[in-house]
Protein 1
Amino acid sequence: DTAVSQTPKYLVTQMGNDKSIKCEQNLGHDTMYWYKQDSKKFLKIMFSYNNKELIINETVPNRFSPKSPDKAHLNLHINSLELGDSAVYFCASSQDTRRGGKAFFGQGTRLTVV
Amino acid sequence: GIQVEQSPPDLILQEGANSTLRCNFSDSVNNLQWFHQNPWGQLINLFYIPSGTKQNGRLSATTVATERYSLLYISSSQTTDSGVYFCAVEGMSYGQNFVFGPGTRLSVLP
C-alpha cells in the first residue's frame, strides 16, 4: 500500500485553465502539506492542514486553494493557471512533528503549463 | 523565519568513497529530518534527528542542537546514493512548518 499517494503524476494544461491535484494518506497522520519544487529543486511549503484546519498559509497566490474533505485527504486546486506555476508539487503527511513525527512524501505531480 | 543552509551544494564521488554533508540552521528546532530525493524525484525520509546520533546501514547522522548544525555521513558510497539530500527543520515557535534547505546534489560515479 502506498502511504501518501497523489494523482495525477503528470499534468499538462494550457494557461488560464483550472486544475486539481488530489492527495490521500493512509497513515492516520494529523497533518498534511503541499510543497512546490521549482526547477532548481528548491522545496517551498505552500500549505499545511492539521485536523482539517489550515494552520499556516504561506504567501502563495490566492489562485491556489487547498481543500480537505477529511484528515486523510488534502487536494490542491489551482485557478487561472500561469506559466510560472509549472513545477513539481508534492503532498506530504506527518504526525505532529513537534512530537517526533516523520514526514512522508507522495511521488509528486509534475505540472506543465503551456 | 528559520533559515537553513546546506553544504556543499554539489558533490561528486567515486564509488566506495565516504562523504559528509552539513546542514546549518538559524534557530532552535523541534524537529530535523534528512531526506534523499532520488533521480526519479522520489523523496525518501532518511532520519528524524533533532539531536544526537543515529545510524542506518551505511548512513549515519548527528545533530548538535546547541550549535545549530547537523551532519549526514555516507560511507562506502554506491551509485544508488546519487540524488539530492535535503535537510528540513521545524522551528520551536507554534505554527512553524518544515523548512527545507537548498539541498546537496550528490553524484556517485562507478
Protein 2
Amino acid sequence: EVQLVESGGGLVQPGGSLKLSCAASGFTFSGSAMHWVRQASGKGLEWVGRIRSKANSYATAYAASVKGRFTISRDDSKNTAYLQMNSLKTEDTALYYCTRGYCSGGSCYFGGYWGQGTLVTVSS
Amino acid sequence: QSALTQPASVSGSPGQSITISCTGTSSDVGGYNYVSWYQQHPGKAPKLMIYDVSKRPSGVSNRFSGSKSGNRASLTISGLQAEDEVDYYCSSYTSSSTYVFGTGTKVTVL
C-alpha cells in the first residue's frame, strides 16, 4: 500500500524558517519524482515545486512565488522528501501536501498518491 | 505563471452531462498534452481523475473524460450523480518545466 506522510508543520513567525518532511512507502521512492502542493484555507491548489529522481539528476523546479526561498531535497536512503522553507511570509500559510510524480514515455503527471498534508501557519 | 482559468461553478441535474473548461496559453495547456484533472472533497486530499489530457487512472469511473483543443482543456462528467458535487481542478505542465493549477470549479448537482 502506498503511503505518504507529511510532518514538520507548525506556527512560525514571518521571516522564519521551517522544514517539512514527506516519508514514503509502498513504491520505488528512488525512481519517483516528488512534488509539493499547498492549499490555503478555503482557497485553491497551488503547485509549489518538485524534485526528480537521481536518474534525472535530482533536478528541481519551483513556482515563481517560492523560488529563491524554498528548497526541495530528498534522501533516497530514508525514502523521504523535504521542503525547506525560508523567509516565510504570511501568504505561505497553507496545508502542504506531498505527492508522487511520474514522467516517462510521453506521459507526465503527478497526484496519483497524496499525503494527508501538514499545516504551516505564518503569523506573528 | 498565472493560474489556468476555470469557471467558478458549473451545475447540472442528475443524469445530465456537464463540462468544465480550463483555459491557458500556448506555454502551458496549448503546448503540451500534460493536462490533469483532480477532484477534491472538503477536507480531503485531491484525487487524480484524468492525466495526459484524456487518460483515466485505474479505478476512476468512465463517466469522467477529458479532452483538449488549442489552449483549452475540458473535463466532462456524464451521468451526473450527487456524489460528483465537489471541487475540480485542472493542472498543466508549462514551458518553464513547472506546473500550474486552475482556479477551481465547484460542481453543483441540482
